[in-house]
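Tokens help. One example:
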Amino acid sequence: MLCEIARWRVPKKNSKKHLEMWTAWMHYIRTHRNKFHFTRSRLFIVETKGSDVEEWRWIDEYQDQKAYDKPMEKDAELVKVKAKFVKDWESVRVPNSFKREVWVEKPELGV
């Protein structure tokens, strides 16, 4: 298995709009599941008190590197919808807070 893990921060003043955007994006994914190559996608928030920002994460799980490498750019509708989402999403995030990593499972070390 391979996981793409991303993290970013959102000012709490943008919390409602951010949640609405992600709710709509996840609805798009659920209703167009054949366009996406991950086996599972989840979003998390780090609960913090006394901060003016929220810490967010996504974890997308892929069966293997081949599934992760499948291009989505061949789907014109998806490219258009995703570009709009990303542009709008950038407007509610803390600038330069988005970071992405790819983690590869070591199955021989799993329990």
